[in-house]
Amino acid sequence: MQIEHFINQIDLTLDPPAEEPLRQYYFIAKARTLVAQMEKEAGRKMTFCVNTFGCQMNARDSEKLCGILNAIGYQESESEDADFVIYNTCTVRENANNKVYGRLGYLHGYKKKNPHMMIALCGCMMQEEKVVAKIKQSYRFVDLIFGTHNIFKFAELLVQSIENNKMVVDVWENTDQIVEQLPNERKFRFKSGVNIMFGCNNFCSYCIVPYVRGRERSREPREIIREIENFVADGVVEVMLLGQNVNSYGKNLDQPITFAQLLEQIEQIEGLERIRFMTSHPKDLSDELIAVMAKSKKICRHLHLPLQSGSSRLLKIMNRHYDKEQYLTLVEKIRAAMPDIALTTDIIVGFPGETEEDFEETMDVVRKVRYDSAFTFIYSKRTGTPAAKMEDQVPEDVVKVRFDRLLKEVQEIAAEKSAVLTGQIQDVLVESVNHQDDSLLTGRLGNNSVVHFPGSRELIGQIIPVRLDECKGFYYIGSRA
Ligand code: SF4
Q1: Are residues 414 and 471 in the same domain?
Q2: Which among 78, 214, 220, 258 is most buried, taking Cβ atoms within 10 Å?
Q3: Residue ranges of the MTTase N-terminal domain (predicted)?
Q4: Residue list, annotated binding site for [4Fe-4S] cluster
Q5: Could you tell me the pTM of the whole model?
């Protein structure tokens, strides 16, 4: 309501202010008048559809885009047959790029039928020069292209695009700017992602992120705390702190603080019940963090600790800065401090030069750590990364066999591990009505396991005790305790 009042007071006869975020509020107000004009012409409300590809970072960015579009006066629609369609793209895998090109063809069909329709592209893929050049050449019907560093400028770019009626392209190579306090629309009223930092300094040899999301920049702790306090006042009970490598949070601030210290401050926020975070690079995971997690009442007993490979030789080529022994020692330390913690991981199969011995090392770590679950990926060559230039790419059929072996091992262990909680009563955050059976609710345990149990939708957003009656491999069937 306050934001609404503020936007209504903006005097559009004046020049836009230079400072952020005031400048963007000016353009939100201006875009409103332009969209209202379109509504008049069309005789109906204007709609928008945000389609998000990729990771939690993009999901959070999309909430910001939705917030701005709502503030401008667009109404959200599930369908891409909307008046404003935006693709928030991911470029981690090369075939993700091709998917976007394919879908643009469909959008063009809609656009030909709807004179008000606008198409925008943003996200990691747009940080690549080659991609932007291709769109400029072959997809002239796209109205707006921007990147990951200037997402806060969305309202301003949208106004430019509507007023000029030609393709607007604004992609920054890097930035040290972090603009706070713009509107955003949370997907869930009871939980939210919170960016604590942007970018990555690690340059793992298979990863494109440092090239498209820039160097590490941490948000000021007071801004993070203020955002979470506002969320809590608005009904949020669980936050997921987001960063490419949260364990190096705060190093580049004027007054450096550690991630563990930030967690201790967040823990103090009254009304906040659960804290999660990702992603945690093993090389930067400190004893201080383990100690803070172990004594915390709010940090969930779940740690996602990407392994990528169990072979010290390959880890070196991957530029991961830890070896197999260091990783296993870290896991031992974590388990000694928190025996009940759930550990999950990411593993790449078929990295260039991976031998049978290397793969066996990975299997060995999987057997020793016994992950609660693991995301397993077949290595996909990503143009623009050092690994893509490496000779020795592993033949597809060999990778496929290894991948299946790994998946079987991971799934068997995960099934055994999750059954351990059967019969226990656990606190569950109720997240939704079950998608297949609407007499059931779906909720999440602190360790990130999912449980389905009978209940009414008023419970959504609450943390309640649930008895885990039966383990079905990857989820539980439960009942209210
Ligand atoms: S830590 Fe490595 S894998 Fe993760 S985002 Fe940074 S470069 Fe990519």
Answers
A1: no
A2: 214
A3: 46-163
A4: 55, 90, 124, 200, 204, 207
A5: 0.89
